[in-house]
Amino acid sequence: xxxxxxxxxxxxxxxxxxxxxxxxxxxxxxxxxxxxxxxxxxxxxxxxxxxxxxxxxxxxxxxxxxxxxxxxxxxxxxxxxxxx
Length: 84
Hints:
With 84 residues, this protein is mainly alpha-helical. 65% of the residues lie in helices and 0% in strands.
């Protein structure tokens, strides 16, 4: 994603006014989503059910004020919340 596109994504809903803390599990599932892993793969890898994994992703989205997972990833990357 280009820097211009990245900044545009952040402006859609705005970045959080304060840096939100994601749990270690939320960061893990968001990082795995960012690199393209599917929900089933992530759930198996972290040894939880798919609904539990989806709950973690939804918590990330809500905490970051994002409308979509792509926007949540962009916001988290912009705040350096995710590890490569």
